[in-house]
Amino acid sequence: MFDFEAALKDIKNKGLNRELRNLETAQGPYSVIDGRRMLMMSSNNYLGLCNDIRLKRAAIESIRKFGVGAGGSRLTCGNFTLHRELEERLAGFKQAESSIIFGSGYAANIGAISGIADKSCVIFCDRLNHASIVDGIRLSGAKLVVYKHCDMDDLENKIIRYHTGRGLIATDGVFSMDGDIAPVDRIVKLAKKFNLMTMVDDAHATGVLGENGRGTLEYFGLKDDVDINVGTLSKAFGVEGGFVAGKRKLIDFLRHRAKSFIYSTALAPHNIAAAVEALNIIETGQQARKELAEKSIWLRSKLIKRCFDVPRGVTPIIPLMVGNVDTALKFSMLLYNEGIYIPAIRPPTVPKGTSRLRISLMASHSYDDMEFAVENLVRFGRKLGVIP
Ligand code: PMP
């Protein structure tokens, strides 16, 4: 039978065991973790909405009116008026005809891909795409063709080699462990040239990129050029859930075919009410977005100046490359002891030899917070030989 003990031992020996830390307060630039006040530099709560009073009020109001649970899947008894309202609002936000909400971004990806694709399809997938895209492809039975990260020549060569009938190019908008932006404009051009569908998972770009926070399409000045637009409510929105926006026909089809939508309990009404409020804030939140981008650029350049292997960029996901698993773990632990929470990201989440610290900024981090982090990153980076 399954030898879990041996498997766990192996995981531990490779330095890949994972501990769950316990948050004891709401999530902000500082949170209490396992009894200690820590500078939180690991959260996807980019705009600080997790603990925003306006979202909390909307959720509480909704709990008074609708209770705390949805009671069933949307297709049975869990479809509240709020769900429809949010779907209409999200469609408008993403400049799409329609949208459909899922229980999470993960569920949106696996539901959308396995809903539309089958073994007659080929799906071209960036090597660093999120696990839920890869799982969705596997679940669909489609042929999975992986192209080199953001490499349009490799993508084109692979399309020429493998594209036969129905096909899809799937990419993260902002890559979750690298913080770089997919060349969606060029992907769209290739898709048009070869008559392929496109899918962008904008989990980390929704609310963050583009003048109005619409994501990577807005960042590139594109409008409805992508067929399947995935977003999450769990990052900049500060709540939970995922969604797909696109043409009405596609969304209607997903309502009939996406199993993670059909067979899963709807998100609780208070979560949806808070998401509607988050969207109100995001749609008018140019200032917070601008600050977040400025801080991201500032921190990246500070770290580069101090000789860290950090890419330039505008997104709040900042990978600080370390390479070795043990060094990354030690680095993270030394920072933790100093009151800074920046986790080490290791295989299998990232490719072998690319272990890193993944810094994640929020608009609410101050320049002093970032200076404090840089000081300690330099101190321990030197100690561990990560920088000279
Ligand atoms: N896509 C990407 C690119 C992600 O980073 C994540 C979350 N880490 C997801 C999808 C899944 O979203 P959720 O957390 O809402 O399930």
UniProtKB/TrEMBL annotation:
Q: Transmembrane ranges?
A: none
Q: Which GO terms describe its molecular function?
A: 8-amino-7-oxononanoate synthase activity; pyridoxal phosphate binding
Record PTM N6-(pyridoxal phosphate)lysine, positions in chain:
235
Instruction: Give cofactor(s), names only.
Output: pyridoxal 5'-phosphate
The lineage's top-level taxon is Bacteria
Q: What class of enzyme is it?
A: transferase
The record's keywords, sorted A to Z, are: Acyltransferase, Biotin biosynthesis, Pyridoxal phosphate, Transferase
Domain Aminotransferase class I/classII large intervals: 38-376
Spell out the reaction equation it catalyses. Answer: 6-carboxyhexanoyl-[ACP] + L-alanine + H(+) = (8S)-8-amino-7-oxononanoate + holo-[ACP] + CO2
The catalytic activity of this protein is classed by the Enzyme Commission as 2.3.1.47
Transferase is among the record's keywords: yes
Q: Which GO terms describe its biological process?
A: biotin biosynthetic process
- Keyword Transmembrane listed? The answer is no
Matching InterPro entries, A to Z? Aminotrans_II_pyridoxalP_BS, Aminotransferase_I/II_large, AON_synthase_class-II, AONS_Archaea/Proteobacteria, PyrdxlP-dep_Trfase, PyrdxlP-dep_Trfase_major, PyrdxlP-dep_Trfase_small
What family is this protein classified in?
Belongs to the class-II pyridoxal-phosphate-dependent aminotransferase family. BioF subfamily.
State how it assembles: Homodimer.
- Function in brief: Catalyzes the decarboxylative condensation of pimeloyl-[acyl-carrier protein] and L-alanine to produce 8-amino-7-oxononanoate (AON), [acyl-carrier protein], and carbon dioxide.
Q: Which PANTHER family match?
A: CLASS II AMINOTRANSFERASE/8-AMINO-7-OXONONANOATE SYNTHASE, LD36009P
Q: What is this protein called?
A: 8-amino-7-ketopelargonate synthase
Q: Which organism is it from?
A: Acetivibrio mesophilus
The organism's taxonomy opens as: Bacteria, Bacillati, Bacillota, Clostridia, Eubacteriales
What gene name is listed for this protein?
Answer: bioF
